[in-house]
Design a protein that fits this description.
742 residues; alpha/beta; 6-stranded mixed sheet; 16 helices; elongated
């Protein structure tokens, strides 16, 4: 590569310290160019480095420094220009100083990224990340000072470059979404669908091959058709911020598939772009969001602001570490070491104003300029830590609560991290919803027969009031899920009890050992018709339980069609058919009815407000009917007593009264709905149950019976049973009835 060309400072105008990043604009004198601004608090000098198509580098010193922000305006620099920074300062890891101008650094505010870490022009990805990516001399023979000797090799040929975005005529990256119609689905009405942009589209036969694995592929009518038919209201996208692949994966010929290794918080991941990576990915992402919005589907991003891809002290120097290590990361008392509340080597120091600004600027950007509707925060407890402990009055949560943009979007916390005191389920303040792992564990345990009684199940079915009925929170604070990207798929949950992660190359040591799974008597796939039938029934039970529970249900893409990862419960590095959806399952008579059941349950939920309540149940007599808004029944048809809750058993009846919903429509009229009775029976033996008599109902109409492989068509006359009558509930099944009043 040709050597750098140094440009005299006089060619760089002073520019502005705001906004941060690279912003193309026309100055008051009519001269067009790009303003560059970078916060680098303790740096001694900063250079903006421009690259042409032949990778020739031109360096421009930024001489203006305002409030620790280095800035300058370069006339003539237009959208599509690739760039990076070199930051000068002390090299003293013992005090946390790790400046190294030999390392080209990615702009934290870059709105597009071109290239990948470790890839050089005309060369394949090497079997390991190049040594040039590291600020220290990698593999130094003396282990005790392995990260303290500065590496002087130039990293520019091996790192991606930021791309100046926006401003060209006809480029939609600068529009203001004036004609976009956000669905704005209320939380109680939401059904979330967690999916991976690449995995969802890679094997879809209706998506053109050149669009598979991309934002454009997800926007394709063939992909949207399935989402619309299923009836979900929001897609929760696994990370789409620019991310990097870890060295240990590259060495094994693998890649980071999930993307929880962010390095660019403003840039859509370039690997998911079909149209190009010189800024085109920004417009492609926006068009995807528009297409989903037009289909009535919100877009929620899974975001990773708790750590970056630079890992611990032995990790590469890619961006923040080389800009101001002490300013961006939490360091230990020994400043060589990083505080690690994430299990990924480092933790962003969100208490620092510049870090808080980076995160909130990024969030606002994705809402206002990229059109997204909300966020799921990975390891959110790490963001809520003050100096050490998790603090629900932390700066991050306080800023979100008062921000006029962010407080209006959907906010979902993964309410834990790996540090001491990091488990915070139920503790986040109003405005926030949370992934509820209590729900996951309880429902799994109930259906595998591992619960001593039904006390906990009652809480989970009715909105988890024991966790969320405080401080004005509502039932929709609970995001109910049985599976997520991390762990077994729904099909694997009833097929395997033990993980099978050998393909990950970690000796099957990775992934959780606590699967709370039951293989129905045989480990792995089986042709035994009894095992096959039982597993199908268990899948229907789990799916039905999830979609009838109060709270916000979350499905994982493919669970509704029997997707399997063949027992891999940690497929984070499996960018392969192991993780990609197999769309042929929808043509399989064994799995198609499962997808139809999911769609039917979602439609039932949408049609009946009693199944998506906005307030917690009181359990007391309500309104004109005098019935409880929520009642619990034994198999004998009698209301549960305190003793019944503690008694061993695997059958629970739940009555939801539609006459007593504490909710009014937009005109102030009280909402009245049907009432429903559901019996959940987890024992393997059939059970005789008595349907509650008057005043609960005169008759009961069967709506869903999971003991059947397929449900009758919706226009089929429903089977009816008189109140007070008895019937046999087959082993391991759910019966949902509509209560017919007298």
């Amino acid at each position: 590569m040709p050597g750098p060309a140094l440009t005299p400072p006089s060619t760089v105008r002073p520019g502005s310290p705001t906004p941060l990043g690279a912003r193309y604009r026309t100055g008051p004198d009519g001269v067009a160019g790009t303003n560059f601004a970078l916060w680098a608090g303790g740096a001694e000098a900063v250079e903006i480095c421009l690259f042409d198509d032949e990778e020739h580098e031109t360096r421009h010193p930024l001489t203006e420094l305002t409030h620790e922000i280095w800035h300058g305006f370069l006339p003539g620099v237009r959208p599509g220009q690739r760039y990076g920074y070199r930051v000068h300062g002390r090299w003293d890891p013992w005090t946390g100083a790790r400046w190294n101008p030999a390392k080209l650094l990615l702009d934290p505010y870059a709105r597009a990224v071109d290239g990948d870490f470790g890839a050089t022009v005309g060369a394949d990805t090497p079997p390991a990340l190049p040594a040039q990516l590291y600020g220290h001399v990698r593999d130094w023979p003396q282990q005790q000072i392995a990260d303290t000797v500065r590496d002087e090799q130039d990293s520019a040929p091996y790192v991606p470059k930021g791309v100046v975005v926006g401003g060209d005529p006809g480029d939609d990256t600068g529009d203001e979404w004036r004609d976009d119609r956000r669905p704005k689905t209320p939380w109680p009405d939401s059904v979330l669908y967690e999916l991976h942009v690449r995995g969802f589209t890679m094997r879809h036969p209706g998506i053109p091959e050149h669009l598979r694995g991309t934002y454009a592929g997800l926007a394709h009518p063939a992909a949207l058709e399935h989402l619309i038919r299923l009836g979900v209201t929001a897609v929760e996208l696994l990370p789409v911020h620019q991310f990097a692949h870890e060295d240990h994966l590259v060495r094994r010929g693998l890649r980071n598939y999930w993307g929880y290794n962010s390095i660019g918080y403003f840039a859509p991941h370039a690997g998911y772009a079909a149209t190009g990576t010189r800024g085109q990915q920004v417009g492609e992402f926006k068009r995807m969001v528009r297409a989903l919005h037009d289909a009535g589907i919100e877009v929620i991003l899974d975001v990773v602001y708790n750590h970056t891809a630079e890992a611990g002290e032995l990790g590469p120097t890619l961006s923040l570490r080389g800009i101001d290590n002490r300013g961006y990361y939490r360091l230990q008392d020994d400043p060589r070491r990083y505080a690690d509340y994430t299990g990924c080597g480092n933790t962003l120091h969100v208490v620092q104003p510049q870090v808080l600004r980076l995160i909130t600027d990024s969030l606002r950007y994705w809402v206002t300029e990229m059109g997204v509707d909300g966020f799921r925060f990975d390891l959110a407890a790490a963001l809520a830590r003050s100096m050490h402990d998790v603090d629900m009055l932390s700066p991050f949560l306080a800023v979100i609560a008062q921000d006029p943009v962010l407080r209006r979007v959907k906010l979902i916390a993964e309410p834990w991290d790996v540090g001491s005191g990091g488990y915070q389920v139920g503790a986040f303040p109003p405005l926030w919803t949370e992934w509820n792992d209590h729900y996951r564990d309880t429902v799994r345990d109930f259906w595998r027969g591992a619960q001593p009684d039904v006390r906990d199940l009652g809480y989970r079915l009715s909105g988890s009031s024991d966790l969320y009925a405080w401080g004005g929170r509502r039932p929709y604070a609970s995001v109910n899920f049985i599976t997520a990207h991390d762990g077994f798929t729904l099909r694997d949950l009833v097929t395997y009890e033990h993980k099978r992660n050998d393909d990950n190359g970690e000796g099957n040591r990775d992934g959780t050992h606590d699967n709370r799974a039951w293989n129905c008597g045989t480990e792995g796939e089986s042709d035994d018709p009894d095992i096959v039938a039982l597993r199908g029934r268990q899948l229907r039970n789990l799916l039905t339980t999830l979609l009838l529970s109060t709270g916000v249900p979350m499905l994982v893409a493919g669970d509704e069609m029997g997707r399997t990862q063949h027992g891999n419960n940690n497929a984070y590095c499996q960018d392969s058919p192991v993780s990609w959806l197999d769309w042929s399952l929808l043509d399989d008579p064994r799995w198609r009815p499962l997808a139809e059941l999911a769609a039917r349950l979602i439609a039932l939920r949408r049609a009946h407000p009693v199944l998506r309540r906005r307030a917690f149940f009181s359990g007391r007599p309500q309104g004109q009917s005098g019935l409880r808004d929520l009642a619990w029944f034994t198999a004998a048809g009698t209301e549960m007593t305190e003793q019944d809750w503690y008694a061993p058993g695997a059958t629970l009846g739940m009555y939801l009264s539609g006459n007593d919903i504490p909710q009014r429509d937009s005109q102030g009229v009280r909402i009245v709905d049907d009432s429903f009775l559901v019996f959940l029976h987890a024992d393997h033996r059939p059970r005789t149950v008595t349907l509650p008599g008057q005043p609960w109902a005169a008759e009961y109409e069967v709506v869903i019976d999971t003991s059947h492989d397929e449900q009758p068509p919706p226009d089929t006359p429903a089977e009816r049973h008189p109140a007070g009558s008895t019937l046999t509930v087959p082993g391991r099944s759910v019966l949902l009835f509509r209560a017919v009043p007298g």
